[in-house]
Amino acid sequence: MAGILRGNIHWADLNPVIGSEQGSLRPVLVLSQNVFNERSGTVIAVALRSQPQRAGYPLTLELGDSKLPKKSWVKISQIRTLSVERIRKKITKASEEEIVLIIEGLNEIIGG
């Protein structure tokens, strides 16, 4: 699928899932670089949730974009590599500041 860019928020079909993975048709935020997205047939993304999260940063980050269908939190701990076949329509784009915070949160979780 053309036009899947870093920072874009798209609808994605995350089913089937196992265990505590996020599932269903939900927004995801693409974190992988554009060249990876274009050439690999996959994207690296994090799931969004519309319910307030008990865990704070670095596990979750509230997004400020009013173009999202609902108030949303990035589940930084729910990073996934997804086939581009799972990716649907673009909803909006995260800010550069939000991308930086998400990457920093991910680095804290994995020890970067």
Which residues form runs of ≥5 with pLDDT under 50?
none
The biggest sheet amounts to: 6 strands, antiparallel
Percentage beta strand: 35-45%
The chain-level structural class is alpha+beta
- Topology-level CATH name: SH3 type barrels
Number of helices: 2
Alpha-carbon distance between the termini? Answer: 30 Å
Characterize the overall form: globular
How many β-strands, per DSSP?
6
What's the CATH class label? Mainly Beta
Spatial strand order of the main sheet: 4-5-3-2-1-6
Number of domains: 1
Named CATH architecture:
Roll
Radius of gyration: 13 Å
Helical content band: 10-25%
In brief:
The chain contains two helices and six strands. Strands 4-5-3-2-1-6 form a six-stranded antiparallel beta sheet.
Describe the structure.
The chain contains two helices and six strands. It has a single domain (8-110), classed as SH3 type barrels, CATH 2.30.30.110. With 112 residues, the chain is α+β, with helices and mostly antiparallel strands.
